[in-house]
Amino acid sequence: MPRSRLRFDELIKDRERIGMLIEGSCVSNIRNGYKVLPEYQEWKKHREFIATAIHKSGTILDIGCANGFLLLCLQNWTDKKLVPYGIDTNYSAVSDARRLFPRQRRNFVNMSMAELAKSREYGLPSKLDIIYWAVGDNLQFSIKENRKLVSECLKRVKNGGRLILGFYDPSRRKNLRRISQLRGGGFKIQKVIKNRYHHGLLLAILEPGAA
């Protein structure tokens, strides 16, 4: 087993630290009206299915990477070799991601996805093998400007790569509606993957040339 995998296995035994890392990924856990640290197994049930959409080794960009913990998990949930990159508008979150990936700290930058066309100016690759974007629950693709964001993401994906869109609204109906909006906007969805534990959670897979 690779040393990185061994270190991860040790890390997830530290319940308090893992809970704080998950919280730093913009996930909270409310139980009986009180905020408690999120549990790793529940987090894994919600997010591990992203790894099934990763079809090749290479570079991966997480849009809205927060503290980078999801990328660390994806590296350990898949047998593919991933080189992590992340962008976030929250400077503190980017600093946390750099601490989590000290050897690749330059791969994490403070920028918005609207600036993707300037990726090289920020020291990021102009194109990547995989781009992952957890789409905000209130973002609708019936709006032209939001569809432009998807088009810009696809421009940054290498041939043979993938754009993975994550839909995490608890309502499956709302998530399917937004995927339908993408199709109506001219995007070809290669595949929709559902989470087997929480059927409302969906991934939409797009590939270059899909718009």
In short:
33% of the residues lie in helices and 24% in strands. It has 211 residues and is an alpha/beta fold.
Describe what you observe in this structure.
The protein is α/β, with parallel strands linked by helices and 211 residues long. The protein has one domain: 3-Layer(aba) Sandwich (Rossmann fold). The protein is 33% helix and 24% strand. The chain has 7 helices and 9 strands. It has helices at residues 3-11, 15-23, 40-47, 69-77, 91-100, 144-155, 172-184, and strands spanning 29-31, 34-36, 58-63, 82-88, 108-110, 128-135, 157-167, 191-194, 202-206. It has a 7-stranded mixed β-sheet with strand order 5-4-3-6-7-9-8, with helices on both faces. The chain has a two-stranded antiparallel ribbon with strand order 1-2. Helix 5 links the parallel strand 4 and strand 5 (108-110). The chain is globular, with a radius of gyration of 17 Å. The model has no long low-confidence stretch (mean pLDDT 91).
- Write down the overall mean pLDDT: 91
Q: How is the quaternary structure best described?
A: single chain
Distance between the termini: 40 Å
Question: In total, how many beta strands?
Answer: 9
Written as H for each helix and E for each strand, in order along the chain, the element string is: HHEEHEHEHEEHEHEE
> Helical region count?
7
Strand order of the largest sheet: 5-4-3-6-7-9-8
Identify the overall geometry. Answer: globular
For the sheet with most strands, the description reads: 7 strands, mixed
Helical fraction: 25-40%
Gyration radius, in Å? 17 Å
Unreliable sequence segments = none
CATH topology: Rossmann fold
Beta fraction = 15-25%
| CATH superfamily grouping | Vaccinia Virus protein VP39
